[in-house]
TrEMBL record:
Entries under Pfam families matching the protein: DoxX
Keywords associated with the record: Cell membrane, Membrane, Transmembrane, Transmembrane helix
Gene Ontology CC entries for this record: plasma membrane
The family this protein is said to belong to: Belongs to the DoxX family.
Protein name: Putative oxidoreductase
Membrane topology: Multi-pass membrane protein
UniProt lineage: Bacteria, Pseudomonadati, Pseudomonadota, Alphaproteobacteria, Hyphomicrobiales
Keyword Ribosomal protein recorded: no
Database matches in PANTHER family: INNER MEMBRANE PROTEIN YPHA-RELATED (PTHR33452:SF1), OXIDOREDUCTASE CATD-RELATED (PTHR33452)
Length: 150
């Protein structure tokens, strides 16, 4: 659905901006998707270099066996971030990232007792990933190029 369709019935304070909003809608969404994906890649780069390094931490959260979940965490952040950035299998990659980030928020807020301020970044990124889990990659994605998506 395009912005023109979404906002055609809405009254803008400055109607002359409708064309700008419409023309930049998909591009802005694509930029957010790419930034979110690359942020996950950057965050997961250290983990993918040592994919079992978080085994004790994930096991302390109740995820057994820790080595399996540590590997899954590493792959979800690094490879899932790549998939989100390029828009391939966008929905499942973004859903997996949403789960990882929700657990990260829980870990900081509840397990470590650091409260909202230390969990805030994970909550925001989880919301961004949830958006793409629901919306998909849009027309500027590999999913759109191949003509199939989840």
């Amino acid at each position: 659905m395009t912005l023109t369709t979404e906002t055609s019935g809405r009254r803008l304070f400055i109607p002359a901006l409708r064309g700008i909003y419409s023309s930049l809608h998909d591009s802005a969404e694509t930029i957010v998707r790419i930034v979110a994906g690359l942020a996950l890649v950057a965050h997961g780069a250290g983990k993918i270099a040592d994919p079992f390094g978080a085994a004790e931490m994930v096991q302390s959260l109740g995820f057994y066996p820790g080595a399996f979940w540590s590997l899954l965490l590493s792959c979800t952040e690094f490879f899932g971030g790549i998939l989100i950035a390029i828009g391939l299998f966008t929905r499942p990659a973004a859903l997996a990232a949403t789960v990882v980030l929700a657990v990260a928020a829980w870990y900081h807020w509840v397990t470590l007792g650091q409260g909202y301020l230390m969990a805030e970044k994970a909550i925001i990124w989880a919301a961004v990933c949830l958006f793409f889990a629901i919306r998909g990659g849009n027309r500027h994605s590999v999913d759109a190029r191949i003509g199939r998506e989840f």
